[in-house]
Amino acid sequence: MCYSFAVPNNKLLSLLPIKFGVDASAWKQLRLDQKWESSSSKTEIQHVLGLKGQPRASQFRLPGAGERVYPRYFAPGVVSDGERNWLRPLRYSIRPERSAVDLATRYSLYNARLDRVLEAKTWRPLIGYRHGILPFTHFFEWVEQKGKKTQIQFMPQGRSLMWAPILWDYWMSPGNEVGYFSCALITDDPAPEVEAAGHDRSPIFLNADYVEIWLDAQSSSAEEWQKFLKGHRETVAYRHSLVA
């Protein structure tokens, strides 16, 4: 699982091993969503977004460079429309396109287990259809040490940027008031350093030479993609430290 991660700045985003454009319309849509939220009552926000209860915080939070992204925050990610790669704001917790209720507060919809992408009804329609990558500088996990929950920060050694494969979707409210892209990060068995620190899963660091292939989602079957992600990892070791 990946509890949260840190957003890279624009200079670091330029280190991604692919070419991409900035999807101005998607970023404009997020600003419009934020504007709609600020002018709406909590009751209206609850109804339009299909929330379990009235919101206690903004549903369209966008951390800046260097800040942490938690589930249901937005962050920059790269997806393909079949012809070109685009940098878009993605909510870190998937919202299926036809969902009437936002289940992100009830279930961990921000991480997709690689061993379950072919069977879980949330992930199965997306693998082989909507792929992307999520860039970040480091990630955070909760581990138990001496009977207490502790946060640990993991950073790739010798690398200032890493990227992980994601599945994404687009949701529009029934009345067309708001719409946004969302994603789930694909995780697998932990890297040795992550396991040694006490956590049982970690993001996949996709090999740079295979990022463009992954983004071409419909070029292979779902079963082939599962094998692909098992065999095309970046070789990297992780440093880690406790979060004060």
Automatic annotation (TrEMBL):
The domain of life for this entry's organism is Bacteria
What is this protein's name? Abasic site processing protein
InterPro entries on file: SRAP, SRAP-like
Q: Which Pfam families does UniProt cross-reference here?
A: SRAP
**Hydrolase is among the record's keywords:** yes
Swiss-Prot/TrEMBL keywords: Covalent protein-DNA linkage, DNA damage, DNA-binding, Hydrolase, Lyase, Protease
Q: What is its EC number?
A: 3.4.-.-
Q: What class of enzyme is it?
A: hydrolase
Protein family: Belongs to the SOS response-associated peptidase family.
